[in-house]
Amino acid sequence: MTASINPHDPDLIRLTEATEPTREEIDLDDLATAEEAADMLRISLRWLEKLRADNSGPACIKLGRRFYYPRSAVRAWATARLRRSKHFDLTAA
């Protein structure tokens, strides 16, 4: 028996709302182009496009023919993917 994900689960909804900006929170002056977002994440533009197509990348907005990424959404997306490793200590300063 496999567990299914309930899209109406309040915990899942809160997690999604915490990592993606709302329409009122988007600062148009803080939008990064796709190229800038890829540079921020240190990934290729093609990989960022794949993430967007899979709906697994940072939140973005399409204006005209181009996609833009709120820098806060890019940072939140990257932060959500931090994980502990024996090779990387998050507590070291």
From TrEMBL:
GO molecular function: DNA binding
Domain Helix-turn-helix stretches: 33-81
Signal peptide (from-to): none
Keyword Iron-sulfur: no
InterPro entries registered for this protein in UniProt: DNA-bd_dom_put_sf, HTH_17
Pfam families with a match to the protein in the record: HTH_17
UniProt keyword NAD, yes or no: no
Protein name: DNA-binding protein
Species annotation: Alsobacter soli
